[in-house]
Amino acid sequence: MRFIMKGLLRLFGWKLVGQLPDDKKYVVIFAPHTSNWDFVLMLMVRLCFKMKVAFLGKHTLFKPPFGWFFRMFGGIPVERSSANKVVDQVAEIIRQRNEIQFALAPEGTRSYKPYWKSGFYHIALKAEVPIVMTFLNSKTKEIGIGDLLRPSGNQEQDLDVIRAFYKDKTGIKPELASDIRFEEKP
């Protein structure tokens, strides 16, 4: 499957770049997330790198007829409207496992939002694991694994590192890319 996915990416004009860190546990973020094709392309990257990624998905994705597909690829359904402690639950799952790569798209949606969701950051902090920045860049047709960030707890300083990494990455629909900042809480 790995060779098929690499061949398909090449056929579509994408160049696979980067390598996975040696760490056994980390949070994987993917950006920019501006198109439905992002998910398909990142599934291909996942297979190329032999990643065993777990991810949260909108609960409606896990209903028939395709729910089995998302579960097979590591999906965990989440009801986004409920006020449960998803960050704490995911951090605990990460702490309990010997090896896990937990993936999130911080933009949270393919629509424009003025900020990123901060859950990935808080999960990494609570679980005491690094963040691996994965990406696609439609301008250069590169897709893959980027930098590793060990969150310091200084949110603005860590966001500066993330912004610097993604500053030259362009999504499939650039006009839908979110600003790399967290929502300001009142």
Automatic annotation (TrEMBL):
One Pfam family matching this protein: Acyltransferase
Gene Ontology terms for molecular function: 1-acylglycerol-3-phosphate O-acyltransferase activity
KW Transferase (keyword) present: yes
Pathway as given in its UniProt record: Lipid metabolism
Claim: Transferase is one of the keywords in the record: yes
Superkingdom: Bacteria
Assigned keywords, A-Z: Acyltransferase, Transferase
Protein name, entry field: Acyltransferase
PANTHER family, A to Z: 1-ACYL-SN-GLYCEROL-3-PHOSPHATE ACYLTRANSFERASE, PHOSPHOLIPID_GLYCEROL ACYLTRANSFERASE DOMAIN-CONTAINING PROTEIN
GO BP terms: phosphatidic acid biosynthetic process
